[in-house]
């Protein structure tokens, strides 16, 4: 009577708030208790989801599962954006060749091997599933999940080289998997597959990925522009930095390009512009709010994955599930190791054998597999329910068993770990200097390598974009000079003393 | 074919994103052009809404208006939270008496006078509207809108005394209006009104307001607790600081207490705990994200108000609208001036006549009126459509004409304005010292005044909450001591030189 909002108006947001409060409470309890030291948070959240799912399933007849739309429209974009924004720019581009090798060639090999193994077993076994269905299933099960990988690797602090390779692969292979998945889902409806269908699929992969990158870059320009123009109204800047990348994702998806590639590109490339255009306060706000948002979305994803175990439509097939789990884990080793030996031929800094073991072992599966398996068409893929169950088993296995044992394994194999220490100004100066020298050497010998293109891009930003478009990206060099100019002698002396530990 | 998300999945978020992008663009254009210097942003956004509404209305047959649920559930809470969080704590409690006088007594007088004037006119005029309907309408039209007030007063930088009185009133009178509105809406359905109905209304007002405060305080304890416990996982802290106050709002509304009082209390009182528990980075993130969010919600509200002008259900009644506008503007003067003279008798620092003029003139109406008028029951209040139109007229008039002329008026009347300057440490120390001395004097003479209760609250926080509940609010005094202890002699010398401008 005394309020215009009745319970039925308030219930949806209140239920969402209650779930979020549960997640916060769970996180606090994990961190306060000693469990958090041994088991990654993602496994614990899945367990929480399992328990909650069990209770809800027994109390109410409620069929909760992670709806693919919810995941692909609202939960994935913030996670992908934060991943792109936090990706170490320099390391990513230095390793782009290896990452692409893993993400494209590696994923295709994974799919072929897994589908082969599954086909062999299913033909021996009572039921026979068409090869194209198994190929489709192998495709989605090969998607290494950036969310799962990030949540585990952030805790174990491996060296940056290993981190960037595993994480970069998991980001890019999603695009490969999603495109292949849709091509195959289309093929599964065709009676007779001709060679031009396969050509189409390859062509469409190239289009979808390139389209994503191009739309991403377009939105980088929009973001750079609008943050530059809104320097006097800082209050809208965090909104711009979150809204435009999300627009980019939606635009990509609505024109059937890869949204995940688009938003990662946008997040990665907009960073220097935000660094230049946002004040320190707004930069902190944007960065940490992105972190909070993506962390929350991750937690929701894992909780829902746990809840999904009690979904009504499961069909358990023990043999199929076991074979899939074993295939997923072992095939990755047989793919990563030969590919790395090829990559090492072209690398200056080689990837060690222990690092290869961790790359293979760190191929965790997560919500992307689950989202894709849910979107399968029941009328075309008759074994859909069994595939859902198997996917849940693979996710729970990789996140639980592999996720929990990777930390001891890293210690056992004595993998080089990284310490979180702020980069010293002298290191930064030397790095920039080395880059410039390398670019100079490349110019002298007339070879156009990575350094050459890096210089060209930075020159393009400075000379072309700046005067006409009023964009001013921060070059690290000029920032350092500014920093030094702002310092007085006393501060410089203190810094030097600290750096050289005199 | 190559994407799982089709256009019909993506369209809702994409349309929302497009509107937000339009708002950002509009803000940038306002600030870059010189219009922004003369007309407040709120008026400009209403104009933009008007233009967009006109175009959409002519292109499509689309009935867009600000749905009350959207406003009360999603747009109002962030604005109220930010308002509470940013409210100057000290000034607010120093002026609480005057603010309550304006908000409770003032609003009731406003309602009575406006309804009287409208009743007189409507009985002379062709149509006769029942007095209870007019009383209901007068109630909702008396709601001074914190959003409109804030958006205008933030730009003109009046002195803090004036600001806190206008803004504090607008925050609290909403609660009064909302409660009265619901009591009256209930009464309008009753044939014969007895005196106990009026007693009930008064009682329910007290319950609803107190209930809001109590629930707000409960959530302050939850927030203080959870931020204290999550010091090691800072990434969830901004989420806690936004989520729990929103939960507070929803809880209040679901148990029929005043959500707006609840969330303002929560925002206001949680601040010292967040100051103590959050790191500087997280504090910045929380504060500026709140600002961005509330700023965006405000912009959406004004844009929608403009769009609402072209809603299909309008019935224009020129005389009724004119009488209402004139009554709203003039009655406020006749209420504020006598009330201030009463308040001034009890005040040490009196409110000057020019300040009273600005308080009267600054009673802008906004979305709360609109939200309430939309929730009227068409079957009970036959003149609903005419009332909606009149409300839109009043809002547009007050925001446009009063909002744009208040800045020149402030200059004309030579109202004391405030400069934005950071408080010096010496001023803070002196203020704290003065507070302590005042509390001491009150203790000596045995009177329990505001200073006594402030000391008691702070002592309660320190002695009772801290050791048992592990909460540690920052008392400004102890923070200052910490600050000074962290400084070395050189820094102290530099600060002193700067403060005394030697």
UniProtKB/TrEMBL annotation, chains A, B:
<dbReference type="GO" id="GO:0015385">
    <property type="term" value="F:sodium:proton antiporter activity"/>
</dbReference>
<feature type="transmembrane region" description="Helical">
    <location>
        <begin position="385"/>
        <end position="406"/>
    </location>
</feature>
<dbReference type="GO" id="GO:0015386">
    <property type="term" value="F:potassium:proton antiporter activity"/>
</dbReference>
<dbReference type="InterPro" id="IPR018422">
    <property type="entry name" value="Cation/H_exchanger_CPA1"/>
</dbReference>
<keyword id="KW-0050">Antiport</keyword>
<dbReference type="InterPro" id="IPR004709">
    <property type="entry name" value="NaH_exchanger"/>
</dbReference>
<feature type="transmembrane region" description="Helical">
    <location>
        <begin position="134"/>
        <end position="153"/>
    </location>
</feature>
<feature type="transmembrane region" description="Helical">
    <location>
        <begin position="351"/>
        <end position="373"/>
    </location>
</feature>
<feature type="transmembrane region" description="Helical">
    <location>
        <begin position="201"/>
        <end position="225"/>
    </location>
</feature>
<feature type="transmembrane region" description="Helical">
    <location>
        <begin position="71"/>
        <end position="87"/>
    </location>
</feature>
<dbReference type="GO" id="GO:0005886">
    <property type="term" value="C:plasma membrane"/>
</dbReference>
<feature type="transmembrane region" description="Helical">
    <location>
        <begin position="315"/>
        <end position="339"/>
    </location>
</feature>
<dbReference type="GO" id="GO:0051453">
    <property type="term" value="P:regulation of intracellular pH"/>
</dbReference>
<feature type="domain" description="Cation/H+ exchanger transmembrane">
    <location>
        <begin position="23"/>
        <end position="411"/>
    </location>
</feature>
<keyword id="KW-0739">Sodium transport</keyword>
<dbReference type="Pfam" id="PF00999">
    <property type="entry name" value="Na_H_Exchanger"/>
</dbReference>
<feature type="transmembrane region" description="Helical">
    <location>
        <begin position="42"/>
        <end position="65"/>
    </location>
</feature>
<keyword id="KW-0813">Transport</keyword>
<keyword id="KW-0472">Membrane</keyword>
<feature type="transmembrane region" description="Helical">
    <location>
        <begin position="12"/>
        <end position="30"/>
    </location>
</feature>
<feature type="transmembrane region" description="Helical">
    <location>
        <begin position="99"/>
        <end position="122"/>
    </location>
</feature>
<keyword id="KW-0915">Sodium</keyword>
<comment type="similarity">
    <text>Belongs to the monovalent cation:proton antiporter 1 (CPA1) transporter (TC 2.A.36) family.</text>
</comment>
<keyword id="KW-1133">Transmembrane helix</keyword>
<dbReference type="InterPro" id="IPR006153">
    <property type="entry name" value="Cation/H_exchanger_TM"/>
</dbReference>
<dbReference type="GO" id="GO:0098719">
    <property type="term" value="P:sodium ion import across plasma membrane"/>
</dbReference>
<feature type="transmembrane region" description="Helical">
    <location>
        <begin position="288"/>
        <end position="309"/>
    </location>
</feature>
<protein>
    <recommendedName>
        <fullName>Sodium/hydrogen exchanger</fullName>
    </recommendedName>
</protein>
<keyword id="KW-0812">Transmembrane</keyword>
<keyword id="KW-0406">Ion transport</keyword>
């Amino acid at each position: 009577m005394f309020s215009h909002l009745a319970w039925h108006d308030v219930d949806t947001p209140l239920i969402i708030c209650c779930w979020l409060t549960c997640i916060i409470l769970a996180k606090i309890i994990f961190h306060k208790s000693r469990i958090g030291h041994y088991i990654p948070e993602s496994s614990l959240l899945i367990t929480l989801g399992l328990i909650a799912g069990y209770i809800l399933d027994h109390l109410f007849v409620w069929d909760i599962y992670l709806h693919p739309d919810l995941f692909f429209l609202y939960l994935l974009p913030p996670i992908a954006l934060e991943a792109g924004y936090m990706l170490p720019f320099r390391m990513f581009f230095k390793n782009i060749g290896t990452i692409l090798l893993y993400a494209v060639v590696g994923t295709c090999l994974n799919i072929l091997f897994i589908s082969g193994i599954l086909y062999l077993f299913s033909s021996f076994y009572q039921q026979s599933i068409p090869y194209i269905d198994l190929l489709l299933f192998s495709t989605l099960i090969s998607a290494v999940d950036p969310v799962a990988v990030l949540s585990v690797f952030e805790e174990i602090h491996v060296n940056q080289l290993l981190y960037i390779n595993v994480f970069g692969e998991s980001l890019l292979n999603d695009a490969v998997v999603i495109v292949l998945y849709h091509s195959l889902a289309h093929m599964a409806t065709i009676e007779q597959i001709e060679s031009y269908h396969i050509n189409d699929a390859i062509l469409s992969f190239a289009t979808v990925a390139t389209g994503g990158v191009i739309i991403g870059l377009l939105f980088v320009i929009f973001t750079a522009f609008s943050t530059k123009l809104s320097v006097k109204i800082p209050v809208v800047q965090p909104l711009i930095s979150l809204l435009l990348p999300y627009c980019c994702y939606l635009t990509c998806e609505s024109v059937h390009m890869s949204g995940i590639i688009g938003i990662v590109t946008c997040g990665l490339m907009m960073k220097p512009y935000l660094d230049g255009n946002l004040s320190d306060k707004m930069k902190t706000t944007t960065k940490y709010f992105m972190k909070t948002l993506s962390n929350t979305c991750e937690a929701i994803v894992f909780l829902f994955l746990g809840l999904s175990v009690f979904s009504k439509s499961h069909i358990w097939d023990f043999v199929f599930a076991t074979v899939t789990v074993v295939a997923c884990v072992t095939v990755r080793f047989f793919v990563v190791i030969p590919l790395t030996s090829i990559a090492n031929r072209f690398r200056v800094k080689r990837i060690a054998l222990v690092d290869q073991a961790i790359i293979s072992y760190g191929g965790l599966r997560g919500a992307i597999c689950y989202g894709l398996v849910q979107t399968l068409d029941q009328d075309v893929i008759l074994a859909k329910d069994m595939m859902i169950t198997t996917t849940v088993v693979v996710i729970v296995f990789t996140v639980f068993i592999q996720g929990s044992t990777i930390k001891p394994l890293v210690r056992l194999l004595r993998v080089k770990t990284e310490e979180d220490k702020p980069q010293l100004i002298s290191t930064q100066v030397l790095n920039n200097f080395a880059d410039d020298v390398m670019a100079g050497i490349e110019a002298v010998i007339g070879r156009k390598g990575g350094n050459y293109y890096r210089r060209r891009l930075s020159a393009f930003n400075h000379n072309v974009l700046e005067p006409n478009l009023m964009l001013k990206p921060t070059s690290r060099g000029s920032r350092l000079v500014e920093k030094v100019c702002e310092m007085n002698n006393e501060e410089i002396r203190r810094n030097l003393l600290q750096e050289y530990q005199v």
